[in-house]
Amino acid sequence: MQYSVCLPAVLNKMEVNEAMAAVKAAGFKQYEIWGWWDYDMDKYLLAQQRNGLQIAEMCTKIVSLTDSALREEYVQGLRETAEVCRKMGCKTVISQVGAEREGVSREVQHKSIVEGLRACVPILRENDLTLVIEPLNTRIDHAGYYLWSAAEAFQNDALRDTSENMKECLRHNRRPDPNETIPVYCRR
């Protein structure tokens, strides 16, 4: 397992080249970011190359998968993210599924998530990307988020089997409660 440093969480007060130099000096080979649209990715690529680092992962555009009416917007955001990933040499994309929708059953929302993930499979395959579906901690800092339990994600075959080439696995837990924060990986 290779660890990466999340620049926005750990070194957000530093200029990007300085932050990456610190990552390298600390012995890490990889870094990660959240929303690429918030950064000058040309500057990140140059700093990455200068410091001999690899980007481990970045987030896709934040569009809710719980609402089927937003599916094409989500898929388009993933397409845009795939282009940035290609440029940066990134193979892992983090995604959230969206907020729980009041008045809409979990069954309907779950179906929307699964159908949305299925729509992403061609993009993931074409770009050799892994999509990471990340449960978030609703008790501490993500109130109202739909997927707060990794156990729920693993119990449902439909989420696990969105494609014959997708699989689930676990990632190192970075948050306080391991029952709520273990991301689900879906590999192309």
Task: Kindly describe this structure.
The chain is an alpha/beta fold and 188 residues long. It folds into 2 domains: 1-59, no CATH class; 60-188, no CATH class. It contains 7 helices and 6 strands, in the order βααβαβαβαβααβ. It has helices at residues 7-10, 16-25, 41-51, 71-88, 106-127, 150-155, 157-160; strands at 4-6, 30-35, 54-59, 92-95, 130-133, 184-187. A 6-stranded mixed beta sheet has the order 1-2-3-4-5-6. β3 (54-59), α4 and β4 form a beta-alpha-beta unit. α2 (16-25) packs parallel to α3 and α4 runs parallel beside α5. The longest helix has 22 residues, at 106-127. The protein starts with a strand and ends with a strand. Mean pLDDT is 84; it is low at 161-188.
Strand content: 5-15%
Q: Tell me the structural class.
A: alpha/beta
The residue fraction in helices comes out at 25-40%
Any idea what the radius of gyration is? 17 Å
**Run of helices and strands:** EHHEHEHEHEHHE
Number of helical runs? 7
Question: Based on CA inertia axes, which overall geometry fits?
Answer: globular
Number of domains: 2
Strand order of the largest sheet: 1-2-3-4-5-6
Number of strands: 6
> Tell me about the biggest sheet?
6 strands, mixed
Give the overall pLDDT as a whole number.
Answer: 84
Stretches with pLDDT under 50, minimum 5 residues = 161-188
Q: What is the terminal-to-terminal distance? A: 20 Å
Q: Summary?
A:
The chain is α/β, with parallel strands linked by helices and 188 residues long. It is 40% helix and 14% strand.
